[in-house]
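hey team, just a heads up i'm posting the complex here instead of the shared drive bc the drive is being weird again. everything in one block, sequence lines first with there labels, then the predicted structure for the whole assembly after. its two chains so it's a bit long, scroll down
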Amino acid sequence: MAAGIRSPHTLLDIKGLRTQFGSGRNPVNAVQGIDLQIGAGEILGLVGESGSGKSVLALSILRLIQSPGRIIGGSILFDGKDVLAMSNRELSGWRGRDIGIIFQQPQSCLNPVRRIGWQVAEPLRQQEKLSRKAAWDKAVTLLRSVGIPAPEEKALAYPHQLSGGQAQRVMIAVALALRPRLLIADEPTTALDVTIQAQILELLRDSCRDFGTSLMLVTHDLGVVARLADRVAVMYAGRIVEEGPVAPMLTAPSHPYARGLLDAAPRLGQMGGLRLRDIPGSIPDLSQPMPGCAFAPRCELRANLGLSACLGELPPFIPISEHHAARCWALPQADGIYSTPMTMGTRA
Amino acid sequence: MAQYVVRRLLLLVPVVIGILLITFLMKALIPTDAVTAMYQGQLSEKEAAQAIATLRAKYHLDLPWYQQFFIYVGDLMQGDFGESIRLRKPVIDEIGYRYVNTILLTALSLVIALVLGLTTGILAAARRNTWLDVTATTVGLFGISMPAFFFGLLLILVFSVWLRILPVVPHGWMAIILPAFALGIIEAAPLSQVARSNMIDVMRRDYILAARARGQSEMALIFRHALPNALIVVLTVVGLQIGNLLGGAFIVETIFSWHGIGELAVNAIQWRDFALTQAIILISAATYLIINLVADIMYAWLDPRVELVS
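-- predicted structure starts here --
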């Protein structure tokens, strides 16, 4: 069990969630037993490289996994309600109103033949039962609140007339139209210009704060996490390998993979001679059985320490501090050995 | 939008001139001119020569071709499409009511094709890979492979000969039922397939996933979100199909003795009635142009990404 920060109210409580793609002899286990909690008003950063299963996890939470994918185990409780037991009708009522999601490609997430205002007003008309006029006015107000200039005119525009940054603002307005209690943002700034990214992140943070909405920020970009998150979970090969408050996670992560991610991220003020380090190897084939730690084959620490348990048995979450834990067999080792800083760059 | 329509209309001008030239030049393709053909071998040499000379003058056949062309266009402008040699009356009198009949038939079959094609296409896409989808696709394949005239004969066999619901040679409004269904059902098949494949394609798009994530019901996803997008492509097919329907009407009208322009065309060619044939070609081409124009305008109206002003 991960040692999540126990906020007074746990909004989302995921236990042992497993999502699989394909059938037959070798299905792909994209999410394999995830435990995760998000508290009310909290911002959680979910970090991992491409293919680590973070987007699948995000879609699983909303029950948006399409065939041939399916959730094969675990539980998702949203404010105590069992999401996996919801009927299609209950799901429709729950999505949008209680939980929202925005995706990486905002332009392709807007219906190309509908006006922007129509798309923002749709949940207000369908779910809030507002009149056409009232919904449109509220849509314009929402567009203004997410920083769309001249919202009255922009409401009449079509998606192809927006820039990427504007489109993502619109997506945020649509997702927050019904003031959901949890917003999942799946790589919300990855497809945007660097200059726009910071603005969108600030908008996300401020909007969520204003509405009291919890935010699950899915990203591969540690800079994004550093800017926004209260807490960080690192995902690798369908599992969470480390979870903790943002400060220790970004300065002194414990899991070798989390360290590798940090070393691979470019930072200002880095000493001139140090080059960026990549993590050798690649993500394992998720259709093959993995009895041990999925990162073991790429792990330099395991090689250095000569640990044998890593390949044979899945490590449990080992507490590092009160709210911080990692799945690594190397952690119980003497501090002295482990804290040999890997960042010193012994690889010339 | 108005600007776009005007621009599209202006683009039609060269096309219209081209059509006029071709129908006019059809005369030149006939080895002898119409007047000589009329009197050859029917009168004595001298009488014929005189009659031919008179008529050649009457029909301006002695003038250079470009002057003849201007006279031809000038007559058309005044609604003078010439006189039918066989029917001994102005072409326009015969074409008028038959044109209305053909438009009626085409419009009714189009409605049948749209209702049938869209319903089965959308249903098949929504219930993909179920028995419903497989049935619709299989029946559709028959529809695509079968020409309308053959299907028309089948309809006569089933409804007039076996079931005796309709007379073999019906009169009045009943006469339109079988030809309209023959054309409509056959054209529904490709429409259904295009609607199905486009709906399936659109339902996979990100904006459908995003709308589903906002709690929109499957019904809302299909009708409010996916259909307007899928219709854009369907419309293009419909535009082409109206051409098919007009062409198909030529044969189907003859089979069902529906007094439309198609039946007239078949007769006019058999009669070697040149003025009549020429007028039918002209009016068919004009109809085709108008349909294309309407399809283009509707396309721009359905798809906001089409640039209205260049």
